[in-house]
């Protein structure tokens, strides 16, 4: 029987006004915004709905904002009778998946990812670390080149293993710059510097991971009601203690998104609903398997399209 997964985007998908149609027409969605504001002690909802974009994009604002909108959309789908067999999220999106899977309360998750953003922002001084997208490079070759550069004293490593032909690297600015040059010489089609505030998912995030571990220790978690695919292992996880450990490890480990999607496909998932603004994950999933049915839901029109399609699902 065909299975369904809800997937949740990570940082970079945020946009001013995301979720506005739902908030304007649905009291339940408005309540998500109110709960986030109360949990955080500031008006995240105003940032989400009115901006400005540069403030919304700050790591410690973008993370709770995306989680709020993703959780809100997932709740709307559930209200319409659509429930997932599995959940997964890209980096920050893993926390939204955990809310949907019943592991962590929405309010606790909003506070946790806000703090996660603060810790990530503080871990490495601005300008000291960066990331770059490498297109058209064999993974083994990339890992070998980045390992050699790291061993020479400038840390750099794979950070997001997104889909065939797209790997993001992360680390010290000098390490990323050297890797971009070496990878292009080794045959990479392109090396694109990313406009990010830090070297996310690299060893340089270990100070942030230590702080995050303390924060997560004070938050109640339950075993997952819906199995979640963990970024770190690209495998199912349900036990709350395993989830805690993996969330800490996730900060300095690669996001194994391509393998995560492949795992879901192995489990019989043929339909993916991306809950959140944009279509980034939908595009990656299509590159991983062109036969997968992918439905991004980010406004009323895209929601209605899924609800109509779902009438024919068995």
Q: How does this model look, in words?
A:
The protein is α/β, with parallel strands linked by helices. It starts with a strand and ends with a helix. Helix content is 50%, strand content 17%. Helix 2 (27-40) packs across helix 7 and helix 8 (139-151) packs across helix 9 (173-185). The chain has helices spanning 20-25, 27-40, 44-50, 53-56, 59-79, 93-100, 106-123, 139-151, 173-185, 206-217, 240-250, 257-266, 280-288, 300-310; strands at 3-8, 86-89, 129-135, 156-163, 166-172, 190-193, 228-229, 236-237, 269-275, 293-297. The strands form two sheets. The chain has a six-stranded mixed beta sheet with strand order 8-7-2-1-9-10, sandwiched between helices. Strands 4-5-3-6 form a four-stranded antiparallel beta sheet. It is built from 14 helices and ten strands. Strand 4 and strand 5 (166-172) form a beta hairpin. The radius of gyration is 19 Å and the shape is globular. It folds into two domains: 3-123 and 204-310, Malonyl-Coenzyme A Acyl Carrier Protein, domain 2, CATH 3.40.366; 129-196, 2-Layer Sandwich (Alpha-Beta Plaits).
């Amino acid at each position: 029987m065909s299975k369904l997964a809800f997937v949740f985007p990570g940082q970079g998908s945020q946009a001013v006004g995301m979720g506005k149609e739902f908030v304007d027409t649905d009291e339940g969605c408005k309540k998500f915004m109110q709960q986030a504001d109360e949990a955080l002690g500031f008006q995240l909802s105003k940032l989400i709905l009115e901006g400005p974009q540069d403030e919304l994009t700050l790591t410690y604002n973008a993370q709770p904002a995306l989680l709020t909108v993703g959780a809100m959309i997932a709740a709307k789908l559930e209200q319409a009778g659509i429930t997932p067999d599995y959940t997964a999220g890209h980096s920050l999106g893993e926390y939204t998946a955990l809310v949907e899977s019943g592991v962590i309360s929405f309010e606790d998750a909003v506070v946790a990812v806000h703090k996660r953003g603060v810790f990530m922002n503080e871990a490495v001084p601005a300008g000291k670390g960066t990331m770059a997208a490498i297109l058209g490079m064999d993974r083994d070759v990339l890992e070998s080149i980045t390992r050699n550069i790291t061993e020479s004293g400038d840390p750099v490593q794979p950070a997001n293993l997104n889909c065939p032909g797209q790997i993001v690297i992360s680390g010290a600015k000098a390490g990323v710059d050297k890797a971009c040059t070496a990878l292009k010489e080794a045959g990479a089609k392109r090396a694109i510097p990313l406009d990010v505030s830090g070297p996310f998912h690299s060893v340089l995030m270990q100070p942030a991971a230590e702080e995050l571990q303390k924060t997560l220790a004070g938050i109640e978690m339950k075993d997952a009601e819906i199995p979640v695919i963990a970024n770190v292992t690209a495998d199912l996880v349900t036990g709350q203690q395993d989830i805690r450990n993996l969330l800490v490890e996730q900060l300095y480990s690669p996001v194994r998104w391509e393998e995560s999607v492949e795992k879901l496909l192995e489990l019989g998932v043929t339909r993916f609903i991306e809950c959140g603004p944009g279509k980034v994950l939908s595009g990656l999933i299509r590159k991983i398997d062109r036969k997968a049915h992918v439905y991004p839901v980010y406004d009323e029109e895209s929601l209605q399209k899924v609800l109509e399609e779902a009438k024919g699902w068995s």
